[in-house]
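retry 2 of 3: previous attempt timed out while embedding protoporphyrin IX containing FE. Reduced batch size to 1 and resubmitted. Inputs unchanged:
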Amino acid sequence: MTDTTTSLWHEDTRPDRFDGVSMAIHWATLLLIVGLFATAWMRAFASDGDTAATLLYAHRSLGGALWLLTLIRLLWKFGMARTPKLPATVGPLQHLIARANEAALYALLLLQPLTGFLQSIAHGKPFALLGANIPVLMAKDKAFGHAVHDLHERGAWALLILIGLHALAALAHHFLMRDNVLRAMLPARAKNISPVRE
Ligand code: HEM
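retry 2 succeeded.
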């Protein structure tokens, strides 16, 4: 039987879905980001210092994990990943916007944990992250601390906006254009969750 999903791609030789490692990293990234925003925002409502400290430890550790995962993701992407071609429903301008959004997301996923790390070392005190103790790396610097705090806050909003656009685009492909863009990032079992435009 002919696979109707394959015929929507420019080249039939390209796979119609990402490989399992790329999918696992993609959805793990989303979970880590949810955890990062949850721990950061819950910390603002923490009723005592111990809870706030535990949430900050979790936040820093999730951020460190996300940074490492993003490095692995990029190595995988440019080394061994199986990447499907965008379907014919995607025009050149849309393609360019999608690639620019993707590049900005990768840049933020690498930079945001770094501004968080700099913010933490600017206190001039040791702190823990992913079970490791980070020693004092610089003397306390309030002005630098404020500057990187500002960058960290702006970076978080920029990340939220880009993720929102990315998710909206994926949903528009699935429900309006009815192509395989979202399905390509879903495991095989979820491949037929809604009709594909014939
Ligand atoms: C992609 C990764 C990350 C995201 C999306 C993220 C997001 C956030 C957000 C939304 C806040 C609250 C900002 C505010 O309104 O003040 C915050 C605060 C903070 N983050 Fe991150 N963060 C990330 C990684 C990290 C990492 C790796 C560290 C440290 C190693 C870190 C350290 C901090 C600290 C210390 C604060 C508290 C600032 C304060 O109120 O004193 N973050 N982060």
